[in-house]
Amino acid sequence: MAVTANAYATDAAVEILALGGSAIDAAIAAQLVLNLVEPQSSGIGGGGFLLYFDAASKRTVAYDGRETAPGAARAERFLSSEGAPMDFYAAVASGKSVGVPGLIALLALAHEQHGRLRWERLFRPVIRLASDGFVVSSRLHQLLARDRFLKGDEHARALYYQADGAPLPVGVQLSNPELAATLRRLAEEGAQAFYRGEIAKDIVATVAAQARGAGDLVMKDFAAYRALARRPVCGQYRGYRICGMPPPSAGGVSVLQLLGLLERTPFSALPLNSVQAVHLFAEAGRLVFADRHRYLGDPDFVPDTTRGLLDRHYLDGRAKLISAGRSMGSAPPGIIGGAQPSGDDTAPELPSTSHLSIVDGLGNAVALTSSIESAFGSRIQVRGFLLNNQLTDFSFRPSQGGLPAVNRVEAGKRPLSSMAPTLVFDRRGRLYAVLGSPGGSQIPNYVAQILTALLDWRVAPDDALALAHYGSRNGPTELEQGKTEGTLALALERLGHRVEMREMTSGVHLIERAKSGGGWIGAADPRREGTARGD
């Protein structure tokens, strides 16, 4: 079963699975196609996080392909000469926002350890599509029309816009021969061609030449980059084992904290999407995000507080702050033993990301969430692909209240993320579900909400993904615009919530074990253009 954000990518995954490829092989092929057909969301100019389950050994591995800051980066990177934070989008659409891309290194490491087909074979679907062309979707057209910065890059303008500046129309056939050439080189020469050759030189030169703000990447930064294998963060919920990404992603910790807090309330006994259920979910979210902003960052630079944040006694104490009858408004962070004093993270995290879920015929599984951060990343195109703006995921203010921000910019550091690829195992230890979502800092809420729908209320996959979203990131209580009743907002306001209606365009892609136990059910979020296919 393969579920991805675009039919072309799902077809590529199925093609590789039909050849006997592993879940990793299929994920690589699909991810490369996503680079081509939804360039706004992910690609080889960005990074990602991947969870892999090996059915034979029953082992789960977390792969970290997060971007890194240049060696020249300093904590004041996004401050003006007066010491104030830069305008956010001025930083995004500049060379200063570009980190060393990690996606190709991530895919190569995972393939080396779990691939079955040749590396070169996995590139054929995307090279074929990039050469022959694909049909521009309504979603891509709308995002091109909406974007203010992409036309500022001459290469992107020539590829995605017409002579009069209008975006390519829906249904037009778009080819990207420059990307096809780049991918042929990577297929033939391997990942080293990205980090040590002409591709890296072109990225370095292009970023340094940005009139909107020059970057400071150098070849040494590329040569030093490594994707990492990490231990996943796992915990229990209602008898199921939930595994996610550890830091530098906050996603896994946040999802497990949120579920752990809910398990200490009457949440599961309440009606689905009832006022009281939404109230408890939002209150738990406030506590989770207060801790996220205070404690989580790259574990190679700050103490790893994962164990303390998930400690059952700690969660017992935090859950007591949740009142059934009144919103706390804004939650303070908890107190974690052994954590260094630090300021809160203030970085916004934008929702332009992609997720894919794959299970192969042997039961091996991949949950991969990947991103270039903002829609179309830094709006800088090199050799047919867009570069990330992931460095704006660092705190613009290097300190808060005289204390260093845990997610401040530092040379070689990986910025904090909310990406939350997730694997679920049932009471017998069998793989039960594979899921994740785009959505910036709202990702943990999206993933936790789907998990509660599946595990607490036994909602069918398609129905679960269609549910209206809600939650809090320790600010207002957010309800999905156009999908939630006004009466819900009024009832929450009576409980002390400050409610905001928001567009909440998740892209949850889910695979669940069929209740019969003999197969898989795939489901794609109706808010985007994803598809599910299986055999």
Structure notes:
The chain is of the alpha+beta class and 535 residues long. The protein folds into two domains: 275 residues, no CATH class; 228 residues, Orthogonal Bundle (Serum Albumin, Chain A, Domain 1). Helix 12 crosses helix 13 and helix 12 crosses helix 16. The radius of gyration is 22 Å and the shape is globular. The mean pLDDT is 95.
Looking at this protein, list some descriptive labels.
seven-stranded antiparallel β-sheet; alpha+beta; 2 domains; six-stranded antiparallel β-sheet; 17% strand; Serum Albumin, Chain A, Domain 1; 535 residues
Itemize the secondary structure elements and their pairings:
Blueprint: E1 2-4, H1 7-18, H2 23-37, E2 47-54, E3 59-65, H3 88-92, H4 103-114, H5 124-132, E4 134-135, H6 138-146, H7 154-160, E5 173-174, H8 177-189, H9 192-195, H10 198-208, H11 219-224, E6 228-230, E7 233-237, E8 240-244, H12 251-263, H13 275-295, H14 306-310, H15 312-319, E9 352-359, E10 365-373, E11 381-382, E12 385-386, E13 399-400, E14 403-404, E15 422-425, E16 431-435, H16 443-455, H17 461-466, E17 470-472, E18 477-480, H18 486-494, E19 499-502, E20 509-513, E21 520-524, E22 531-533
Parallel strand pairs: 18-19
Antiparallel strand pairs: 1-9, 1-22, 2-3, 2-10, 3-6, 4-5, 7-8, 8-15, 9-10, 11-12, 13-14, 15-16, 16-20, 17-18, 20-21
